[in-house]
Design a protein that fits this description.
Length: about 210
């Protein structure tokens, strides 16, 4: 049996000739450099916006200086008016508290006496009457508004032993009374049963 002769040196050993590869149809791509998506940001951009902002503020100050001055004057005027109003109210409140029968200046009365506090007249004849298990209270007292405006009525009836104010106290009140109107006071609280005293004082209450 015979065999074909071995291939000659340098040959591929294949019966088919070698096929050349076609050239690549795509050109070589350049290597990208710098920042992706565009050129690098310019330096100093933040300072530019700062100068623009300062310019706008300066323009507002120059154009609206008159408006700012008017606003400042208005604020100062309003503050002065509020201060004057507060001083007036404080002065009026102090005068009311120090008047005869005011919070700081109670009237000394005897049981059943008539008395006057401001424009309010309290009729005589009121009494301290014992109530079972409670002590002494004031069942009725009549008040008249002699002023020119409506008023609510609140008074405290206080008891003293010497210069010491007792803890027992009777508070009386009435609904709003129109000018010239009279009404009955509703009184709450009692003088403890067996409690002694030597002075009764009355004053407005708030």
């Amino acid at each position: 049996m015979s065999y074909p002769p071995p291939p000659s040196p340098g040959s591929s050993g294949s019966p088919y000739p070698a096929q050349p590869y076609p050239a690549q149809p795509y050109p070589a791509q350049p290597i990208a450099t710098g920042y992706a998506g565009g050129p690098p940001p310019a330096k100093g951009g933040g300072k530019t916006w700062l100068w623009i902002l300062l310019g706008v503020l300066l323009l507002l100050l120059l154009c609206c200086g008159g408006t700012f001055a008017a606003c400042s004057a208005g604020i100062v005027g309003a503050s002065s008016a509020a201060s004057s109003g507060l001083e007036s109210y404080s002065s009026s409140s102090s005068a009311s508290a120090n008047k005869p029968g005011g919070v700081n200046n109670p009237l000394t009365v005897s049981e059943g006496d008539s008395f006057t506090i401001g424009d309010l007249s309290f009729a005589s004849g009121w009494q301290l009457k014992a109530e079972e298990y409670l002590g002494k209270g004031i069942p009725s007292m009549t008040v008249t508004n002699n002023g020119s405006s409506s008023e609510s009525v609140y008074i405290d009836v206080m008891f003293y032993e010497g210069s010491t104010k007792l803890s027992d106290e009777i508070s009386c009140s009435a609904s709003v009374l129109a000018p010239g109107e009279s009404g009955q006071l509703n009184c709450a609280g009692h003088l403890s049963e067996g409690q002694t005293y030597d002075t009764i004082k009355v004053a407005e209450a708030y």
